[in-house]
Amino acid sequence: MSQQQQWTAMDRYFTDLLGTDDKVLEAARRDSDASGLPPIAVAPNQGRLLQLLAQVRGARRILEIGTLGGYSTIHLARALPADGRLVTLEYAPRHAEVARANIARAGFADRVEVRVGAALDTLPVLAAEGGDPYDMIFVDADKDNYPHYLEWSLRLARIGTLIILDNVVLGGEVLDPAAGPRAQGIRSTMEMLAREPRVSATALQTVGDKGWDGFALALVIG
């Protein structure tokens, strides 16, 4: 058994034992695949981790940058109270269409809003609307723009907001200073976190069904 096969088997063991997947989530993943969306959503156990972090945070308002088929969105929405609100930003209209159907089937159409368009166009609109700051922000979109997404996340946050950035390892690419724009975007973002006095941050490597990758977590403290 290869190392990747071992990682995948371990993830499946946790998922089966702890029930981190179910028929609603399976349907969301299946319909995303059938619609030709790239298979890059978080793994079931990672989705449950996002849900638990939102619940621990007591999040009532969540922002997600990068919707894809709505798989992670459903996990996050499950953490919201009945009057909670989640805004998720998706660049591709086709992805947003699939996500809306998945979110509606999961029962969260009333508390999840999918906004379509480039996130760097939509984020200023959110700021201009002047709503309450977000309690939790999950970033899982184009990596070369992560520095800009972090800047906007901080603008839309408050003390106590938890910011989570996915894919901060990229199979080790981030260690290579000569790597492409995706890895350079992550490196720049991590350097921003290192010098940002308003956050307390860390990063964790992960292995599993999604390969070798990781999350960065930043708590806004000032």
List the helices and strands and how they pair.
Elements: H1 3-18, H2 23-34, H3 44-57, E1 61-65, H4 71-77, E2 85-90, H5 93-105, E3 112-116, H6 119-129, E4 136-139, H7 146-155, E5 162-166, H8 181-195, E6 199-208, E7 211-220
Helix pairs in contact: 2-5, 3-4, 6-7
Tell me what the structure shows:
β4 (136-139), α7 (146-155) and β5 form a beta-alpha-beta unit. Strands 3-2-1-4-5-7-6 form a 7-stranded mixed β-sheet, with helices on both faces. With 222 residues, it is of the alpha/beta class. The protein has one domain: Vaccinia Virus protein VP39 (Rossmann fold, 3-Layer(aba) Sandwich). It has helices at 3-18, 23-34, 44-57, 71-77, 93-105, 119-129, 146-155, 181-195; strands at 61-65, 85-90, 112-116, 136-139, 162-166, 199-208, 211-220. Helices cover 44% and strands 20% of the residues. The protein is built from 8 helices and 7 strands, in the order αααβαβαβαβαβαββ. The mean pLDDT is 97.
